[in-house]
Every structure is written in C-alpha cells, then in structure tokens.
Amino acid sequence: MFELLAWVEQSALGDALRGSGVWTYGLLNLAHILGIGSLFGAILILDLRLLGVWRSIPIPTIVRPTVPLAAGGFLLAVLSGILMISFNATEYLGNPFLYVKLPAIVFGIANVAVVQRLPAWRHALVGTEVGSGDRRVLAIAGAISLITWLTVITCGRMIGYW
Ligand code: HEM
Fold first, then answer.
1. Ligand 1 neighbours (beta carbon < 6 A)
2. How would DSSP label each residue in 33-76?
3. How far is the CA of 101 from the centre of ligand 1 (A)?
4. Which residue ranges form the domains of the chain, and what is each CATH number?
5. Has residue 129 got a pLDDT over 80?
6. Would the pTM of this model clear 0.85, i.e. be above it?
C-alpha cells in the first residue's frame, strides 16, 4: 500500500499539483463537495422513491433527472478525489476511513450495475405496473444504495480527523 501511495504522490501529476499555487487544493476540495452534493442529492431522491416515498410520482419521471445528475456528480467527485489524494497520498497510509471508503465506492458502483440488470428495475423503467414483489426488490435496492453512499460520505468526512 505504501508503494502505491508513494507512487501517486511522487508522480508528475502530484508534483505539478503541489507546484500550482495555494488555491489548487481548496478549489479541488470545492469541486469534490459539488460532485458529492450532486451525487448524493440525486441518489437520495431516487432511493427514497424506490423505498416507497412519493408513490404518486412514476419512477421513470424520477429517474430522468436523477440518474444523469448522480453520474455527473460521481465523475466530478472521483476526478477531484484522485487529484486531491495526489497532493499528499502517503499521509493517508493506515487511515481506516480511506480503506473503507474506496471499497465502498466500488461496491456502490457494482450495486448500480446489478440493479440495472434486475427485472424489477426494467419493469419500473418502462412504467409497467410494479407488483408487490417488484416493489420489495426495488425497496431493498434503494436501502442498500443509501447505506452504501452514506458510508462513503461518512468515511470521506472522517478521513481528515484520523
Ligand atoms: C476515487 C475516488 C475518491 C478519492 C480518491 C477521494 C479522496 C478524497 C480525499 C483525499 C479527501 C480529503 C480528505 C482529507 O484529508 O480531509 C476526500 C474528502 C471527502 N470525500 Fe472523497 N474521494 C473520492 C470519492 C468520493 C466520493 C464518490 C464521495 C461521496 C459520495 C466522497 C466523499 C468525500 C467527503 C464527504 C469528503 C470530506 C470533504 C470535506 O469535508 O471537505 N469522496 N476525498
């Protein structure tokens, strides 16, 4: 792990970022927060709908704005996160919150891939009547997603306090 973090820190990217002025880290942190806000704001609305809140709003109506917003927010968070960690990667060695956060992000993305393949999700997307079996599956998917992204955010926030 130390070798990986040292390689990231000593890379040309890390050197360039550290030499690029006092505002760079702060601006990257701002981008990270904007990405997280877009990702989690969108996910929260979608997952609450899957859990049964706002039943009168059809799922495709919620999916249309939230999924692209979550995807864009995720990309921004990942890009800015990689750039931020390149500043001083070795300082995070042994930080348990980073070690939980990164696998939780991978799990969150794997969960998206699985949910997209579920018959219940495909039924919901085309707006066909969602039966109680589908509703239960979608609610479980929404709960797993919410717990996962809350874990990522909590660990992200706690990294700096370790
Ligand atoms: C490869 C992806 C990512 C990397 C490498 C990364 C890396 C980082 C780093 C280095 C910090 C600063 C920690 C510190 O020293 O205080 C941070 C903060 C944070 N990250 Fe990430 N991050 C990634 C993705 C995400 C995602 C997807 C989320 C949320 C869904 C997230 C949530 C947070 C939060 C909440 C903070 C605290 C921000 C603050 O209080 O200023 N991160 N991340």
1. 29, 32, 36, 39-40, 74, 77-78, 81-82, 84-85, 105, 149, 152-153, 156-157, 159-160
2. HHHHHHHHHHHHHHHHHHTTTTTTS-HHHHHHHHHHHHHHHHHH
3. 8
4. 2-159 (1.20.1420)
5. no
6. yes
